[in-house]
# Entry
Amino acid sequence: MAERSVYGWDIGGAHVKVARWSGGTLHDVAQWPCALWQGLDRLEAVLVLARQRWPDLADAARAAHAVTMTGEMVDLFEHREQGVARIAAALAATVPAPRFFAGDAPWCDAEAAAVQWEQIASANWLATGRHVAAALADREGVLVDIGSTTTDLIAFRRGRVLARGRSDAQRLARSELVYHGVVRTPLCALARRIRWRGETLNVMNELFATSADVYRLTGELDPAHDQHPSADGAAKDVAHTQARLARMIGLDARDGSAAEWLAFAHDWRTEQLGELRGQLERVVGAHALRRGAVLVAAGCGAFLVPELDARSCLPYGGALAPLAADAGPEVATWAQVCAPAVAVAALFERESR
# Structure
């Protein structure tokens, strides 16, 4: 009889990420865009795609399901409690007996999830942190998970997550959660003023462009991770990307050269790196991490992590550690992008033995 698979689910407000884990090995990872704020039917459509990819998904004898989420935050729901309950019910109607990661509390079923919603809400970062801390039990460092929308800065030491906050509000207060990502972040959130041709201009506080435009132009954003519509709904080619960036300072793409718009994109990149570096330094200082601590890169923005270390005044040197060292190259890449899904599957399998 085939070994049972554990499917790890990370139900976000913009994406659904799923990892298939069995026998201590990561076999497959997938991410689908899911604009959950537009309705639960968006999640239901992704569940159909998941069943098409993995036919045994609904077979209780062959599949177990471990779930974490952040999607309860979207404004589809009146409050987070309702969001947790409705997402849990939607999963339970599709897959057999899903179990929900509740942080410091035990795993629970969908019915109990409605009661334990405070432990379940936006706990995906803690699953990732515990997975990495266990994998690097003899080390200390920071997991830097830069996603499409947010960045998690999770300190760990000797197999334990050191983060002092648990809720989003607590983590925002402690610099452990930063609402900066490399795809969906409105560009006007990265800087109030920006350089152009030797001058510093005020930024237009409009949703003219997103961080995806920056990293698309610099060539660092993998097209496979660029899954959401552009700010204006137009194409994602170079010309339209330049046009969106130009609008941030009241110009058109024809007002600058290709080289100038590339330099402009790099200036936005510098602004974001500076913000993330400052937040990281606060986390490092709060936990007195020592020289030789390791940075673990995750998320579709993992390409930024080396510069957070190399160009900062952090009191330690940073070595990047892979999230899924034993997986093949393609699976390992997606494992970094979908880190919470991988982590929640691995934790559930380990804790269920």
